Amino acid sequence: MNASLPPAAAGPARSDLDEEAVRRLVHLFYDRVHKDAVLGPIFSGRIAADAWPVHLAKMCDFWSSVLLKSGRYDGRPLPPHLALGSDAGEAQFARWLALFRPTALEVLPPDAAQAAIAHAERMAHSFRLAIGFHTGEDITRMPPVR
Ligand code: HEM
Predict the structure, then answer these.
(1) Ligand 1 pocket by C-beta < 6 Å: which residues?
(2) Does the pLDDT value for residue 8 go beyond 80?
(3) In total, how many domains does the chain have?
(4) 64 CB-near residues (< 8 Å, 6+ apart)
């Protein structure tokens, strides 16, 4: 390897944490979700093809608010997940996180990736608790999604 090359040229480009990095995270992640055998049909059953740009823009606002404190997202994340009912159980949340973790590590600087993953894991657990509560599961011993 040429020692004079800057590190970024040696590996995959990893940008600073900025709006462009957030955009790349969201677009790459939902591209993978779309192609995924477990999650793809769940999302495409609820988001029409022509509504994807709106969903992606909303998710950019969400992650921009989480990671950059931009305050762009002021929605309510729980209702659409409660509506998923048994389509969003432990297996589906585990799959979501299994796609999200490597995507965050690929696209974001390491500290930001860890923060994004920790935030997603907390939200996945709180969605699971809320869905379980509404469907009558015993949530008192429900472990965090792995
Ligand atoms: C089984 C896993 C999941 C499934 C199947 C799922 C599915 C969905 C669906 C169908 C929507 C509604 C899209 C629309 O109608 O516009 C949505 C919205 C959203 N999801 Fe998820 N999701 C999952 C996990 C997560 C996790 C772990 C997070 C946390 C990072 C998350 C954050 C959001 C947010 C912020 C919205 C936008 C809510 C709004 O303001 O309308 N989702 N999700």
Answers:
(1) 39, 42-43, 46-47, 55, 58, 62, 75-77, 80-81, 84, 88, 92-93, 96, 120, 123-124
(2) no
(3) 1
(4) 19, 22, 70, 72, 73
